[in-house]
Each structure stands twice: as structure tokens, then as C-alpha cells.
Amino acid sequence: MTRTLRRAHYPGKLFVVEGIDGSGKSTQLDLLHKWLLSENYLVAFSEWNSSPVVRRITKRGKENKSLTSLSFSLIHAADFTDRLERQIIPALEAGAIVLADRYVYTAFARDVARGCSPGWVRQVYAGALQPTLAFYFRVPLEESLRRILVGRPELKYYEAGLDLGLAADPYESFKLFQARILQEYETLVEEFRLTVIDATLPLVKQQDQMRAIVKPYLEGALQIKPGSVADLLQEEALVGRYLEQINLNKNGER
Q1: How far is Cα 175 from Cα 161, in angstroms, rounded to an integer?
Q2: Could you give the CA distance from residue 97 to residue 50 in angstroms, rounded to a whole number?
Q3: Fold type of domain 13-250
Q4: Cα(151)–Cα(96) distance, rounded to whole angstroms?
Q5: How far apart are CA 172 and CA 250, in angstroms?
Q6: Is the entire prediction scored with pTM above 0.70?
Q7: Which residues of the chain have a pLDDT value below 50?
Q8: What are the residues whose beta carbons fall under 8 Å from the beta carbon of 230, sequence distance 6 or more?
Q9: How far is CA 70 from CA 26, 51, 116, 155, 177, in A?
Q10: Rounded to an integer, what distance in angstroms lies between the CA atom of residue 121 and that of residue 233?
Q11: Residue 178 burial by CB count (10 A; 0-12/13-18/19+): exposed, middle or buried?
């Protein structure tokens, strides 16, 4: 059964990328961002687990290893809700394009992999907006592990899923945890009709596919004259990482 999130009609567009660690989704999102800027679109960015509201409690919980699967889920939900209200919706209302590196589908995959009920997690995020497009970068588990683990000195406790008791060895635990997440993602592809990109293809080919899919959805998004970006951001009171970079460049900072 195909499921959708809450639909809202804003002039802006919301494009999100999903995938297990090592899928290359962040690289592709950054390339898409550069292309959109070259086309003079106003672009905002929102990243999973980046809200200052929960940063301190998340850091403390990780340091003393006190986070449970449930508390992890609720902290990420608080992070998402704060970013939705402060970053995503205002930018969409202003007509900007919002690029999200991970969205609610990350919670639907990771939290369930950690043992939370699928129905409960979906209810927690019931207020989430339906994105314009949601890309899923599909990559085989062994390839993602190769990309992540080559040259990695060590894995963090929660990153490796050591809290789940899957294995004592961090690398084996990480492999088992990622396999669980990958399985959940594959169910989400059908449930939410995610747009699948083969993440084993050359980077340029992946980006060409992504741009071709995005292009028809750009109608109505805000385009601006070069040099007027920062003034418009200030007028609309928009926030987000890419927007902050534009303001820094205007002020001559690096």
C-alpha cells in the first residue's frame, strides 16, 4: 500500500535524499545544489540531527551511553520538528528550494532497525510534509561498507549499533546494523514510492539522472538575479546552511 505524508501547497520545492551510510547521497545533493545555484534558484539546506535545540542533550547522551532506542527516536523527532518549523516551512513559503540530507525516511528505517514499532514511528512524524521528490540511493551493503570502513580508524558506539547487542566487535555490529537499515529502506521504496538512483553508477551519470528528474518540478520555484540573494534572505528571514554561506560571502568572509 502506497503511503503519503501531509500535503501542503507552498511555492517552494522540497527535494530530499536518503540511503544507508556510504551510499553517496550527500555528494549528489551537493552537486545538485551547485547546479541549482548556477540556474539562479534560491536554495536552502537542512541536515538530519543538526538542530541546536537537541545538540547538547544528544552529545551528553552519547558520551555517557545513556540513550535508548526510544530516546534516540524522540530526540531525532524533536530535531526534525524544530528544523521543519524554523528552516523548511519558512523557506518553502518564500518560494525557495529546500534540499534535505535525510528526511523522515531515515527515522522510519533507523528507528525500526533499532527496535521501535513502525506504526509508532510513523505516527511521531505525522506532521511531516510530503516532499516534492524523495531520492533513495540504492547501494549493495558490501559496497557501502567498503566505502565507509576503508581508512576509518574506529566507529563510534551508536554509529556501530553497539547499543543493540548485535555483536561485540564494532565492525561486525556496524555491518549487522546497516543490514537491518537497508532492509527497512527497501520496504520504504514501495510504501512511499521513493525515486531510486543506482548508487553504483558513475557519479556524473547519477547526477545527470537526478537533474533530469528534478527539472520538471522546478516550475514556480524562486529565481533571483545574481547579487540580490543576501538581501532577499534577510527580507524573508530565512535560515539554513547554504543560506548562511551566501550571507558570509556577501560580508567578505570565507
Answers
A1: 9
A2: 19
A3: Rossmann fold (3.40.50)
A4: 38
A5: 47
A6: yes
A7: 246-254
A8: 246, 247, 250
A9: 27, 19, 7, 22, 16
A10: 34
A11: buried
